[in-house]
Automatic annotation (TrEMBL):
<dbReference type="InterPro" id="IPR027268">
    <property type="entry name" value="Peptidase_M4/M1_CTD_sf"/>
</dbReference>
<keyword id="KW-0378">Hydrolase</keyword>
<dbReference type="InterPro" id="IPR049980">
    <property type="entry name" value="LTA4H_cat"/>
</dbReference>
<keyword id="KW-0732">Signal</keyword>
<dbReference type="InterPro" id="IPR015211">
    <property type="entry name" value="Peptidase_M1_C"/>
</dbReference>
<dbReference type="InterPro" id="IPR001930">
    <property type="entry name" value="Peptidase_M1"/>
</dbReference>
<dbReference type="InterPro" id="IPR034015">
    <property type="entry name" value="M1_LTA4H"/>
</dbReference>
<feature type="compositionally biased region" description="Low complexity">
    <location>
        <begin position="27"/>
        <end position="45"/>
    </location>
</feature>
<feature type="active site" description="Proton acceptor">
    <location>
        <position position="337"/>
    </location>
</feature>
<feature type="binding site">
    <location>
        <position position="359"/>
    </location>
    <ligand>
        <name>Zn(2+)</name>
    </ligand>
</feature>
<feature type="binding site">
    <location>
        <position position="340"/>
    </location>
    <ligand>
        <name>Zn(2+)</name>
    </ligand>
</feature>
<dbReference type="GO" id="GO:0016285">
    <property type="term" value="F:alanyl aminopeptidase activity"/>
</dbReference>
<keyword id="KW-0963">Cytoplasm</keyword>
<dbReference type="InterPro" id="IPR038502">
    <property type="entry name" value="M1_LTA-4_hydro/amino_C_sf"/>
</dbReference>
<keyword id="KW-0645">Protease</keyword>
<feature type="active site" description="Proton donor">
    <location>
        <position position="422"/>
    </location>
</feature>
<dbReference type="GO" id="GO:0006508">
    <property type="term" value="P:proteolysis"/>
</dbReference>
Amino acid sequence: MTIMTLRTLFLVIALLAVTACERGTPSDTSGTSSGSSEATVASESNAADQSIEVGKDYHSLSNPQQIIVTNIALDLDVDFAQQVLRGSATLAFDRKQADANTLVLDTRDLTIHSVTVNGADIEYALGSADSFLGAPLSITLPADAQAVTVAYTTSPEASGLQWLTPAQTAGGQHPFLFSQAQAIHARSFIPLQDSPQVRVTYQATIRTPKELLAVMSASNDPDAARDGVYEFTMPQPVPSYLIAIAVGDLQFKAMGERTGVYAEPALLESAAAEFEDTESMLIATEQRYGPYGWDRYDLLILPPSFPFGGMENPRLSFITPTVIAGDKSLVSLIAHELAHSWSGNTVTNATWRDLWLNEGFTTYLTYRIMEIVYGTDRYNMEAVLGFQDLEADIDRLDAADTILAIDLRGRDPDDVFSNVPYEKGALFLREIEQRVGRDQFDAFLTNYFKEFAFQSITTDQFVDYLKQTLLVEYPDKLSEERINQWIFEAGLLDKLPLEESDAFTKVDTARMQWLGGERAASDIETKDWTVHQWLYFLNNMPEALSQEQLADLDNAFGLTESRNNEIAHSWLLMSIKNWYEPALPRLHSYLTSIGRNKLVKPLYRELAKSEKGKALGQKAFAEARDGYHPLTVKANLPFVE
């Protein structure tokens, strides 16, 4: 159900300076939104107002407001020799306008062989390509057509696919393929309406070499025979960015009644042990926020070139191996991807301007899940570290990019992925929780997930829902003005709902004593420190440290050789800033063995600040580039050019 009200509302939006803006009355827009409003955003020069059509997807060339795709049936061959997918997509659709006769799909670098209806060729045209939006595929439909079949081949350079040689895998014997569709990369391996507003069911037949197993974000059979032909069904409607495929030498191990892990044989046992609490997380989340609606919840452990920590593909989250630490210290990532099963996959952002509705809610749920499963101390530590990450991004980003309802017109939506939609969004929700009470806010969230289940909504729709629920129930505790400031203003507000951690107090004391020369690093009692305490210890060091200080830390704690990828990242960043040469060989090894952007991008960015650093970065990038995902290449290329 979509709730929109007619109103005129003044908001304050800070871009590079604080300027006034107006959100007017609702108007009809594209996609599945049944109502929207216009937000007027002041330009940087404040010379003229620019109108944002709320609910309009500026990152899709398709036309779901006239004809909307409802189901996709894929029939694809996986060709490792040519590094392409080859086959067809049959798209069923509804005509939202009875006289509409042109279906427009998003594509990027696809070779279109034919478009047919019931086996008969029909007219189509592939438009000119935009640098990041791709090219529209316009199909002229017969009057009685209800589905079209597009025969196509992907490009070896498809932005949403990564093809790995055997040498780039854990086993070293077989090739590997995986997809990454978020934000607008599904169009590089399927011709479709690539907008989060358009939700589709899908089926797939995938043909692979017989020794390999295919899995998808759909109904996977853990006992499937390896016969080279795999069938999949996704009965729930999902946005295009959640369609995912992987093919490799994969084995399965159950972790619970509804949970398990797929991985290469070399990683299977360690992954299953690391993530064995997944079933407990699933049960805890259901008890708090309602039933899990996707049947199974399995994990797929990808090779280290995967550009993200995880991807919340429904039924099968894709996970980086960099979080297999051996002590469950980084499993909040699993809680995060699981939480997306409620916030993001079930209730989805309608446009990439609304990403915070996915990630802010999910980050809030992640903290809650971690508290339930692992206790309040761990929750507090992770919340403190999360806020420090947010502060670092707000200091680094342009003011306009610290607004939750960000203006992304004319920009690649990948640019929105910072800590802002995650941590600022979660902080906003934590404030509401603290003001109305935890039980009351949990009830609100449960109802919210039910109200908008399997829908894609805008920020305005959420605000209207909030106004008709919590703002009515708690007018003395919540302020519409402050809510609008959280969502539509840059930076952070005052009186933030911050957590504190007693576990960090002794870390602060140890750091200050060491910096003051009162204690050698080897005399600091770290035996019982958690990974979170180590990160807090390192991340709050002064920017400038002497070579003697760095050597003291390294000799005492073996930081250069740390096998925990998060601790190693923090240490290597410190080493670059202070050019600690004993750590530079490990830095090169780290950059050439990991493709996760969260870990490598800050290192390349820091290296680019000096000539000798840039030279080191260029050498590592040149060696690692062929093994990096296209998104990692795109994100880091500016630092090595």
